[in-house]
């Protein structure tokens, strides 16, 4: 490409346990960036609007037992089906703010235990097994982890009625996220930024906005290539 090749957009991911305020923060952030005329779109996973997403939605809202591996692969397929569009969006110069991704996929499945499921497998599914279907997906340029402990999450009005919204499971999910953070830090590729989600919405918003503008600047000034997950 010549001098006029547009810079790619940054891929910024917000992760965290249920009720940490991710969804609120994604929408505040997108509004903020758009108000600065920075081209940005929001994405979220699971994307319940596709056929695969419809199956995931049914699973999350019912108590029907389905094999954990099969469901895990559907969550991953739901990301893979979105990946070409995700890459095109970034290549066209638009930034992406994403609400959950492969880290949620691994954290939730690997946190399940026999009491949360009724599948062929006896023990927990390993981190390695859970990561493998997502290897090769476009990797985020930064992970912003909204950290909240389970007492604080509960004090926000309790969990909803969907599958997984139980305290014991959420405690293990938070531990799995920490393991995934350690793996990324060891690989030295995808930087994590942990934000204390117990602060006010305004404080969290300001901290996130700073991380996001720094990340966009870094991606553009370094012409950073888009990486792939866990490769
Ligand atoms: N979840 C989300 C998974 O179990 N695996 C995944 O790959 C993803 C992306 O779905 N409790 C879980 C986490 C949530 C649930 O997400 C629905 P949301 O953000 O509440 O729509």
From TrEMBL:
GO terms for biological process: nucleotide biosynthetic process. CDD domains: TMPK (cd01672). InterPro entries: P-loop_NTPase (IPR027417), Thymidylate_kin-like_dom (IPR039430), Thymidylate_kin_CS (IPR018095), Thymidylate_kinase (IPR018094). Residues 14-208 form the Thymidylate kinase-like domain. Its EC number is 2.7.4.9. The keyword Kinase applies. GO terms for molecular function: ATP binding; dTMP kinase activity. It is an enzyme of class 2 (transferase). It comes from the Eukaryota. Pathway: Pyrimidine metabolism; dTTP biosynthesis. Keywords: ATP-binding, Kinase, Nucleotide biosynthesis, Nucleotide-binding, Transferase. The keyword Kinase applies. Belongs to the thymidylate kinase family. This is Thymidylate kinase. It comes from Discostella pseudostelligera.
């Amino acid at each position: 490409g010549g001098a006029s090749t547009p810079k790619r957009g940054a891929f910024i991911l917000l992760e965290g346990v249920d009720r940490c305020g991710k969804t609120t923060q994604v929408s505040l952030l997108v509004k903020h960036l758009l108000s600065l005329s920075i081209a940005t779109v929001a994405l979220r996973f699971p994307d319940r609007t596709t056929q695969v997403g419809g199956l995931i939605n049914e699973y999350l809202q019912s108590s029907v037992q389905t094999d954990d591996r099969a469901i895990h692969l559907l969550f991953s397929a739901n990301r893979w089906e979105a990946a070409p569009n995700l890459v095109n969006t970034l290549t066209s110069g638009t930034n992406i703010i994403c609400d959950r991704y492969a880290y949620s996929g691994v954290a939730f499945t690997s946190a399940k235990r026999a009491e949360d499921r009724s599948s062929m497998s006896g023990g927990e599914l390993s981190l390695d097994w859970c990561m493998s279907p997502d290897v090769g997906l476009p990797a985020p340029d930064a992970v912003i982890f909204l950290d909240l402990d389970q007492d604080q999450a509960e004090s926000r009005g309790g969990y909803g009625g969907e599958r997984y919204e139980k305290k014991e499971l959420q405690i293990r999910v938070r531990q799995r996220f920490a393991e995934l953070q350690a793996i990324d830090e060891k690989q030295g590729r995808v930087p994590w930024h942990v934000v204390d989600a117990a602060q006010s919405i305004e404080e969290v918003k300001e901290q996130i906005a700073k991380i996001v503008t720094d990340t966009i600047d870094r991606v553009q000034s370094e012409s950073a290539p888009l990486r792939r997950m866990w490769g």
